[in-house]
Specification:
CATH class of the largest domain in chain A: Mainly Beta
Structural class of chain B: alpha+beta
Strand order of the largest sheet of chain A: 2-4-5-7-6
Oligomer: heterodimer
Number of domains of chain A: 2
CATH topology of the largest domain in chain A: OB fold (Dihydrolipoamide Acetyltransferase, E2P)
CATH class of the domain at 1-165 in chain B: Mainly Alpha
Strand content of chain A: 25-35%
Largest sheet of chain B: 6 strands, antiparallel
Radius of gyration of chain A: 22 Å
Number of strands of chain B: 11
Order of helices and strands of chain A: HEHEEEEEEH
Distance between the termini of chain A: 78 Å
Shape of chain A: elongated
CATH architecture of the domain at 1-165 in chain B: Up-down Bundle
CATH architecture of the largest domain in chain A: Beta Barrel
Radius of gyration of chain B: 27 Å
Structural class of chain A: alpha+beta
Largest sheet of chain A: 5 strands, mixed, barrel
CATH topology of the domain at 1-165 in chain B: Four Helix Bundle (Hemerythrin (Met), subunit A)
Number of strands of chain A: 7
Largest interface: A-B, 38 and 47 residues
Chain lengths: 147, 655
């Protein structure tokens, strides 16, 4: 093969490899992006059904109920609430009145079933997303009182 | 008094660093020997000053000086002494001081072990490093000083986060920082070469051991972090593709590519631009990692809860460092580009292919890590990219890397032919394929992924074994083979061991969440677990509920495991201490969940795991590090170049 043809072959091969890996990466990306919604957004129907997403806010005081290994609690952003069910062991820092982020799906019955409840590392630390949900709600409330 | 001395030492370090850095670099540009001569003693002074400052902070922790804000936030009178010292780097400000200490320690090492380098090179390298240190010092002194005093002195501190009260804190951050910071050395060497306008095989020979040393520290640091997360966090996971884990993994990937690229530059003078680019990228990724952890944009068990203002400073610093280095590269790349060629089938090609693959893997991981941050910054929503993405892109990219690793080590430099290679490798290929497909039957249900993983691992091991055998048998004086050759094989075998661990754990691990009362049993992975009791046990600064779980195989009780749930006095936060029985072929893992009400008898939620071959993961990393160590200590890096002036015989060649 002449050197020029060899170089052309290498370039084409390189581009094909890059294209292939880009395709794989973006494909994996699409199916694995998990969006976050505030409880208000979930109540408004913004969240997808039958696809994993995250919801976060505060655990409503008095809402934790345990039945064997299944726990149900309510995530609130002080305006709207989302009931969550989770089967498994909860992280140590999960408690009423503290921030929480749960990842799961809204199944056919319209209820949110969590596959993961996210832990924080410090009892004073609020996950940024949960804080965001609370902030959005506060803005909502403030704009309502101004009207 | 002591904290003020420490603070003053930092200010002095800043001044010395700025002076020395500026003069060393200027001296290199102008050829002024007197300015260049400041480099070595300057580096040593920086290390001593930073060390003194560090000791002042450590002393404040030791004597429980709660008038220092940082000590009050991260320590407590009841905290055991060793964790009081380790708490020095348990928070943002102190960890920066550790970063700085590591940087000056590396500078000290370069100043001591660089007698064979020309003075211009040394002064430029140390000058660049000093300027980086100045950047960090400015950051510390202006926004995050660990020596800030409180006017309202608390009676007792807030305590160190219980998750950190573990031997892991003593070893993991220092080791990891050594690696992160170590990447600045090849960076500095590259900048020096670009400033010099010349790059040759000698430059590669000087840079290579430093790049390897940094890589070794990163390898051990990451492995330690993984192991610590495994036994500490209580969920049996060992890698979560957490943004901060990725932040350490990215420089490791690029560092691996860099090490191998340096091999080509050293041996054949090729890949020069590629090598420089990789070293610039590796350190940039290190800095990016530092930024990510401290900016407050991440939800992570690793994130320092700190304010975004500091993040802005580091971002500016990052832009300045990366931007100026890339500009310099763009300006000078033409001068350092290599000539020479290599055939389509040659060792160079396979090294290049693997380097490209490693860089691609790093890019994919970087994309997944940064994408949520970018989307959030643009206010397009909040999303996260979870482990499934990373797993599905990383594995397919690494598979060809492992395949080509072997072929590359068999291929000759410059040119080889396919028939020869195929002939040499055919028996190894067939054996590894057969064994890889057959072995899974012994472990459990057959799966193609497990077969592939095992085949690749055996492919690596067998190929290395055959090469080692050939070397011993066919070389007349095999004992004088350079140690770096054996190092290469040890490291590659380490990769194989790691892959075996990952494959077997991913393929065959089992886990169960159960509700257990006293006397209940559960079966996992061929073992039976019986809960025999829960007792209250006090600790130095906590109270614990301690379970006794019998590990039973068949009829025999092998062991009693003691998982704990601790409540620390300083906070109401409970913490899980898992009980692990480790073995070469499997780990058995029990962790205590919450106490469950109902049904009269007290019951507990328990999580039980069986993880086959999981320790192979960390053993593999350990072997990789050993192999790297053997390669870095090769004699050729320490031999003093015999001077051409005829003084050679007097100076001699140092072994």
């Amino acid at each position: 093969m002449k050197p020029r043809q060899k170089r052309a072959a290498i370039i084409v091969g390189g581009l094909a490899a890059v294209g292939l890996s880009a395709y794989f990466v973006l494909n994996a990306f699409q199916s694995n992006l998990v969006f976050f919604f505030t409880p208000s957004q979930v109540e408004a129907g913004d969240a997808p059904t039958n696809r994993a997403f995250r919801v976060g806010g505060m655990v409503k005081t008095g809402s934790i109920h345990r039945d064997n290994l299944t726990v149900s609690f309510i995530v609130t952003d002080t305006i709207k609430e989302v009931p969550v069910t989770y089967t498994g062991i909860l992280p140590d820092l999960f408690r009423e009145g503290k921030g929480v982020v749960a990842q799961g799906q809204i199944k056919g019955d319209g209820k949110f079933t969590a596959s993961e409840v996210l832990a924080k590392h410090d009892e004073n630390y609020m996950p940024p997303e949960a804080q965001h949900a609370l902030d959005q709600a506060a803005i909502e409330k403030a704009s309502k009182t101004l009207k | 008094m002591i904290p003020e001395l420490g603070h003053f030492a930092l200010i002095l370090t800043l001044l010395v660093g700025a002076a020395m850095g500026g003069l060393s670099l200027a001296g290199g540009q102008r050829g002024r020997a007197d300015w260049m001569a400041l480099a070595r003693p300057g580096a040593q002074a920086l290390f001593l000053l930073t060390g003194f400052s560090f000791l002042c902070l450590a002393y404040s922790f030791y004597v429980n000086d709660f008038s220092v804000m940082y000590v009050a936030q991260h320590s407590n009178t009841k905290l055991p002494v060793i964790y009081r010292i380790a708490a020095v780097w348990g928070g943002h400000e102190g960890s920066l001081l550790l970063w700085l200490l590591m940087l000056t320690a590396w500078m000290m090492a370069v100043s001591l072990f660089s007698s064979q380098l020309p003075e211009v090179m040394v002064s430029r390298v140390l000058g660049v490093l000093a300027l980086i240190a100045v950047g960090f010092l400015l950051f510390m002194l202006l926004t995050s000083s660990p020596f800030t005093r409180l006017t309202d002195i608390p009676a007792d501190g807030r305590d160190l986060n219980p998750l950190l009260q573990d031997p892991g804190l003593v070893f993991h951050p220092p080791m990891l920082y050594m690696g992160y910071v170590g990447m600045s050395i090849p960076f500095a060497f590259s900048i020096a070469a670009l400033l010099n306008g010349r790059l040759d095989a000698a430059w590669a020979r000087w840079t290579r051991p430093w790049a390897t040393a940094a890589w070794i520290c990163l390898t051990i640091g990451i492995a330690m972090g993984s192991w610590w997360a495994y036994y500490e966090l209580g969920w049996g996971g060992w890698w979560f593709w957490d943004p901060v884990e990725n932040a350490s993994f990215l420089p490791w990937l690029v560092g691996t590519a860099l090490m191998h690229s340096l091999a080509v530059t050293e041996k054949r003078g090729l890949f020069r631009s590629w090598t420089i680019m990789l070293s610039l990228i590796a350190f940039s990724l290190s800095l990016l990692g530092t930024f990510l952890v401290r900016s407050g944009v991440l939800t992570s068990v690793h994130a320092f809860a700190t304010d975004p203002k500091r993040g802005v400073f580091i971002l500016i610093f990052l832009v300045v460092v990366v931007g100026s280095s890339l500009l310099l590269f763009a300006a000078r790349a033409g001068k350092v580009r290599s000539g020479g060629s290599f055939a389509l089938v040659s060792r160079e090609t396979f090294l290049l292919v693997n380097n490209v693959l490693l860089t691609t893997a790093a890019a994919a991981v970087l994309l997944g890590t940064l994408y949520p941050l970018i989307i959030d910054a643009l206010n397009l929503g909040k999303l996260s990219v979870g482990p499934p993405y990373f797993n599905s892109v990383f594995a397919p990219i690494m598979t060809p890397v492992m395949f080509f690793m072997v072929i590359g080590s068999y291929a000759r430099w410059k040119s080889d032919n396919v028939k020869d290679l195929a002939k040499k490798l055919q028996p190894v290929a067939i054996t590894s394929l057969v064994l890889g497909c057959a072995l899974p039957f012994l472990a459990g249900p057959w799966s193609p992924l497990v077969a592939m993983g095992l085949s690749l691992a055996i492919w690596l091991v067998l190929a290395s074994a055959v090469q080692i055998y050939r070397q011993v048998k066919d070389t007349v004086n095999w004992r004088s083979t350079p140690i770096s050759y054996w190092g290469m094989h040890v490291a590659h075998i380490g990769v194989a061991v790691f892959v075996v661990g990952v494959t077997m754990v991913k393929g065959y691990e089992t886990e169960k969440d159960v509700r257990m009362t006293i006397g209940d049993t559960v079966e996992v992975g061929g073992y039976t677990f019986r809960l025999t009791g829960i007792t209250k046990v006090p600790g130095p600064n906590y109270n614990a509920d301690r379970g006794a779980v019998e590990l039973i195989k068949g009829d025999r009780v092998l062991k009693v495991l003691h998982p704990e749930k601790r409540t620390y006095f300083s906070s109401t936060m409970p913490m899980t201490e898992a009980a692990i029985d480790s073995g070469l072929t499997r780990d058995v893992y029990v962790s205590l969940g919450e106490k469950l009400e109902g049904d009269g008898k007290p019951a507990w939620a328990m999580r039980v795991y069986h993880k086959p071959f999981i320790v192979w993961i960390w053993f593999g990393c350990f072997f990789m590090a050993i192999g790297g160590g053997m390669a870095a200590l090769d004699k050729r890096y320490r031999r003093k170049v015999v001077a051409k002036l005829g003084l050679g015989k007097v100076k001699g060649a140092m072994a």
